[in-house]
Specification:
Blueprint: H1 5-18, E1 28-30, E2 38-39, E3 45-55, H2 67-84, E4 88-98, H3 104-121, E5 124-132, E6 138-148, E7 163-167, H4 172-181, H5 190-201, H6 207-215, E8 220-225, H7 230-239, E9 244-248, H8 256-265, H9 269-275, E10 282-286, H10 291-297, E11 305-312, E12 318-321, E13 327-330
Parallel strand pairs: 4-5, 9-12
Antiparallel strand pairs: 1-2, 3-6, 4-6, 7-10, 7-11, 8-10, 9-11, 12-13
Length: 340
């Protein structure tokens, strides 16, 4: 039984990984084993592609995330980008930078995580690259998906008066990360702590909700997935067209877990819902006349939606309307930024 990468070598490693990957997409004509993956595009569709890198000590800490969770998360955050455009993923390429001390057991579990999420979304892992990394592990995924030609959802396109919606709860992932990093664990009841940590380590990309919107006749005018926090990502929807937004504080979705932890810690839960990153929920705008139909559409969904605000014509100005009617200006750069 081989236990380290030196004995296994690059090609031994690739063969070991290939033999464990069994999800196939009918689109992919040639997967692992040649110079390129070969795939065919569907008629009346556009192809979508995105890439995301996760680097140890910046994006994750191996002390707090298991290799299975890491594999799942690396793929989930990429699937979320395809969801943000109204698409369906079908192929992924993965590049791994592995310190030579990495055990094959670790790699097997990492791939088990990748594989389980690929299985559930029918994505074929069709190739990539493995290299030695001097110190830290890194994972880079490139994902390919497709969307109907006339149903791609972009970040631009919202107009003043459009209504702002979000799926799921916000702020849970950021609080989960805070709990993971905290020295003491006095963050409320274990069930609440676990729910928040799980949201951080095992995000669920909102593919089903996105395809529900894509298949509907609703006029979705803009969409993004929330990776850097609500205020910052809403800023992306507003900035190109010089728009602003009003957000209603009492409509921001706060989970029971986040509410309870904030109560105990005397934090304001709305700071977390506005600024917390890595929620991977969908943030989108629709025409006011579609609101009723949207709510009806989501009665069948597994995830609820919240009507959190409205697009305005005040350039780049995002205003929080408090429960008492007072107004607060929000800074759009208050989310996560790698180079700050």
């Amino acid at each position: 039984k081989m236990t380290n990468l030196k004995q296994l070598g690059e090609f031994g490693l690739i063969e070991r990984l290939r033999s464990r990957l069994n999800t196939r997409s009918p689109r992919v004509k040639k997967g692992i084993g040649d110079d390129c993956a070969v795939f065919s595009a569907g008629a009346n569709t556009v192809q979508l592609t995105s890439t995301d890198a996760l680097i140890e000590s910046i994006h994750f800490d191996l002390k707090t995330i298991s290799p299975i969770q890491l594999g799942r998360k690396a793929m989930a955050v990429n699937i979320s980008d395809i969801a943000a455009m109204g698409g369906t993923p079908y192929l992924a390429l993965i590049s791994l930078g592995l310190p030579t001390s990495t055990s094959t057991k670790f790699i097997d579990k990492l791939y088990l995580g990748l594989q389980t999420i690929c299985d559930s979304h029918k994505i074929e892992l069709a190739g990539g690259d493995t290299v030695a990394s001097p110190k830290h592990l890194f994972i880079n995924v490139c994902i390919v998906g497709e969307a109907c030609k006339n149903r791609v959802f972009y970040r631009t396109g919202a107009k003043p008066g459009d209504q702002i919606f979000v799926t799921g709860n916000l702020g849970d992932s950021a609080m989960g990360l805070k709990i993971l990093k905290a020295k003491n664990k006095n963050f409320g009841a274990a069930k609440h702590r676990n729910a928040l940590v799980k949201k951080h380590l095992e995000p669920i990309p909102r593919i089903e909700e996105s395809s529900l919107l894509a298949r509907s006749r609703l006029n979705v005018t803009s969409m993004i997935d929330i990776s850097d926090g609500l205020t910052q990502d809403l800023g992306h929807l507003c900035s190109k067209d010089n728009l602003g937004a009003n957000l209603y504080e009492d409509s921001l979705p706060v989970s029971e877990a986040l509410y309870n932890v904030c109560l105990q810690k005397k934090y304001d839960p709305h700071n977390w819902t506005l600024q917390g990153g890595e929620d991977y929920e969908l943030l989108f705008t629709i025409k006011p006349e579609d609101v009723k139909n949207l709510k009806r559409l989501f009665l069948k969904a597994n995830t609820f939606i919240s009507h959190i605000g409205e697009i305005t014509n005040s350039p780049k100005k995002i205003t929080l309307i408090r429960e008492n009617g007072s107004k607060v200006s929000l800074k759009t750069e208050s989310g996560f930024n790698h180079f700050k």
